[in-house]
Amino acid sequence: MIQRVFRRTETKYLLSEQEQQKLLELIEPYLVKDQYFKNTNCSLYFDDKDNTLAIRSLEKPLYKEKVRLRSYGVPTLEDTVFLEIKKKFNGIGGKRRVPIRLKDFYAWQQGNMKQPLSPENPQISEELKYLFQTYDLKPALYLAYDRTSYADRDDPHFRVTFDKDVRSRRTNLNLESGDSGEKYFKNREIVMEVKAGGAYPLWFVRALSRLKIYPATFSKYGRVMMRLEETNQL
Question: What is the mean pLDDT of residues 141-157?
Fold first, then answer.
């Protein structure tokens, strides 16, 4: 069954390749490989003409939201992708998404959204329609990275993921156009995301403490857009 609604804390950490290797040596005995252990996550982010959602993401507000179209691997027009709303309020992250064939999403978007996005998910569909119409959302950035995913052996809701080779582009803003792009990190840093429904398990806390690994404020979409703005590429 496809999960459509997520609610959890999501904390990011920036690691060197050496730090990742040392951390995995400590925590791998407690983990199992996730269902999608190794994947390339591809996302098309939507924003308004002023990049309001990206700017808001960087301002660390109490509440923020993003809209993206995600695929696991490079899809064809016939493949299922996920149109998602990512929200964060007071440190708690939520994600609501609708599975849809890529060609059906394009038809919905280009047809002024007259037809229901997903009859099986009416509430989420209406939320997405509202956001697209309120902000006049358009494709703003393509972003991809190679992800390795783990889950706690005893608690599948506790997940640890490692994202490397974060890359993006501002042209060919279609998921089916491949996963190439300009790399964000020049020193091959890795973004670790920890997703938890409650407190971290003690073995994980001890590993972070031993290696002196601390949380970092990092939004892939926001940071890439900020760099593009700083280099006058927006």
Answer: 96
Number of H helices, E strands in the chain: 6, 9
DSSP state of 175: G
What domains are there in the chain, each with its CATH number? Answer: 5-230 (3.20.100.30)
pLDDT in tens, 90-109: 767 788 899 999 999 999 99
Q: What tokens appear for 194 in the block?
A: 């920890």
* Strand (E) or helix (H) holding 190: strand 190-196
- The CA distance from 40 to 180, in Å, is 11
Residue 54: helix, strand or coil by DSSP?
Answer: helix
The token pair that represents 16 in the structure block:
């060197």
Cβ burial, residue 214 (10 Å; 0-12/13-18/19+) = exposed
Name the DSSP letter for residue 71: E
Angle between helix 202-211 and 17-27 (nearest 10): 150
140 — pLDDT class (breaks 50, 70, 90): very high
State residue 82's pLDDT score: 96
